Amino acid sequence: MNTRSISTRVPETIADQVAAEARRRSVTESDLIREILAVRYLGTGPSTAEHQPHGELVDGYAQLIFEIAKTRSVILHSLDHTLGADVVDEIIDASEQTAKEHVAQVRKSKEIQS
Fold first, then answer.
1. Which of 7, 14, 29, 55 has a beta carbon 3.0–4.6 Å from 50's, enabling a disulfide?
2. pLDDT digit string (tens) for 11-34?
């Protein structure tokens, strides 16, 4: 995915809130703003996480999912241009099968524990 820099000015109160939230979550202000924009325009996570129970946990998961999806996209894009679409499709199919098997094992383990 191509990126582009956007500069903007915001009221001091908003800048202070962004800085505080970024410190609280141990991320940079830029990362936080990118996440907020991704949530709003790409639908990569809940936009009302602060209003939900355990909002911090939800925020953390949303950030993790966003980072995983972003990294996956970069890798697949690179592989597609390097190896070709057919090979990448085989890799994706194999990894999806492995993931499904892992999820099935986790579910089975949880059922046994219950």
1. 55
2. 899 999 999 988 888 888 888 888
Alpha helices in 12-54 (DSSP H): 12-25, 29-42
Q: Helices in the chain by DSSP H: which ranges?
A: 12-25, 29-42, 55-83, 85-113
Distance set, CA 62 to CA 35, 38, 93, 100, 108 (Å): 9, 10, 25, 21, 26
Environment class of 94 (CB within 10 Å of its CB; exposed 0-12, middle 13-18, buried 19+): exposed
Question: What tokens were used for 55?
Answer: 């909002």
Helix, strand, or coil (residue 45):
coil
Helix (H, G, I), strand (E, B) or coil at 1: coil
Residue 108: both structure tokens together? 């089975």
Q: Scanning the structure block, which residue is given the tokens 């966003």? A: 66
What is the pTM for the complete model shown? Answer: 0.41
* pLDDT tens by residue, 84-94: 888 888 988 89
